[in-house]
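tmp note - Rhamnogalacturonan acetylesterase
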Amino acid sequence: MSLFNKLRFAAFFSVILLMSFMTPAKKIKVYLVGDSTMSVKLISKYPETGWGMPFAIFFDESVTVDNRAQNGRSTKSFITEGRWKSVTDSLNAGDYVFIQFGHNDEVKTKKTYTTEDEFKTNLEKYVSETLKVRAFPILITPVARRSFDANGNVQESHQVYSEIVRNVAGKMNVPLIDLDKESMALLQKMGVENSKLLFNKLEPGQHPNYPAGVDDNTHFNEYGARRMAELVLAELKKLNLELAARVVKR
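out:
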């Protein structure tokens, strides 16, 4: 056999050997549970966008994101409506569950209101039932509302309920993404006027879905949702979880 053929066969078998060690990445499913700041929106509500929508496109093909977040839900109503059970019925070992509530839990005038103790108990339920099937819960503090004082300082939106999320994460030793803190920092950096660019704010006649206009300091437009998703992804990378290695640049 000529030297050329020997080298060719050696290269061929090297490729075969290398391929034998290359196994496809294990499939990962990510569930998002939370409220309107995270949820998928109806076309009739565009350009309002939940941060879970752009979040889903930042992963490679081995990751599937199942966004179960719903407008107006609290930790309590998400359970009583059977939405959490539908997640746990589908949950498998190795899955991830991103849990972000608080906006609707903390408002005493809403039917979805939960007391501080109830909020804590509900979060513990989400975490323990996720861990029970050897899946990975990630607690997220509620994303900040756009609120500034007269001096241009961003105001706390969820001080009490965010602290409960932090405490539960610490007590149960599960990962925490402090989106309240990170989003407040982003709002402060952008300032009173530029931060408006993140939210669903339209003048009358500017969009057919909002003929009378809209002035929303809670829900995001497409740009704002992407910025919030990027904050979550940046914090995810700091947690050193397997899922973070599946994030790709878009």
